Amino acid sequence: MGQCAMKEKIAAAVLFRLFEPEIKMKLVKDGKVAVVYSPDFGGGWSTWHDVDPMDSRMAEAVISGDKAKMKKAFVEMSGESEFLPDFEQLRVAWLPVGQEFRINEYDGHESIQLKEDIAWFTA
């Protein structure tokens, strides 16, 4: 293999690593997935920060009540270490595996809405 072909192969491998989606693990127990949200007013969790509400690191930290673990998980998830959310407001909801939902937010208050609870209009 020539030097030029080798450089192209290495460049392709580096690009693949850069754009490869990160595999996020969900915390699943008894057929239900842990979803972290913030039901109190103030600052939303996944609606105000670029984080996955089903990330197992934060779910486990919230369940344990360990604020140091919550901070570590948040920094790993978001890359943000200067402006931290109020971890005391976080709660875990357990939704069945495969359940479609969204997290609504108003003034920092987040609520979980199931897909089947949304009234759709048909034109």
Provide a descriptive summary of the structure in words.
By secondary structure, this protein is α+β, with helices and mostly antiparallel strands. It has one domain (28-117). It has three helices and five strands; from the N terminus they run H-E-E-H-H-E-E-E. A hairpin with a 2-residue loop joins strand 4 (101-106) and strand 5 (109-114). The longest helix is centred in the N-terminal third of the chain and has 17 residues, at 3-19.
Brief write-up:
The protein has 123 residues and is of the alpha+beta class. The chain has one domain (28-117).
Features of the shown structure:
123 residues, alpha+beta, 3-stranded antiparallel sheet, two-stranded antiparallel sheet, 3 helices, globular
SSE topology:
Blueprint: H1 3-19, E1 28-29, E2 32-37, H2 56-64, H3 67-78, E3 91-96, E4 101-106, E5 109-114
Poorly predicted regions: 9-21
Secondary-structure element order, as H and E? HEEHHEEE
Tally of extended strands? 5
Strand content: 15-25%
Largest sheet: 3 strands, antiparallel
Nearest-angstrom radius of gyration?
19 Å
Q: Compute the number of helices.
A: 3
Helix-strand category: alpha+beta
The CA-CA distance between the termini, in Å, is: 60 Å
Residue-averaged pLDDT? 84
Q: Give the strand order of the largest sheet, numbering strands 1, 2, ... along the chain.
A: 1-2-3
Q: Which of globular, elongated, flat, extended, rod-shaped describes the shape?
A: globular
Helix content: 25-40%
The number of domains: 1
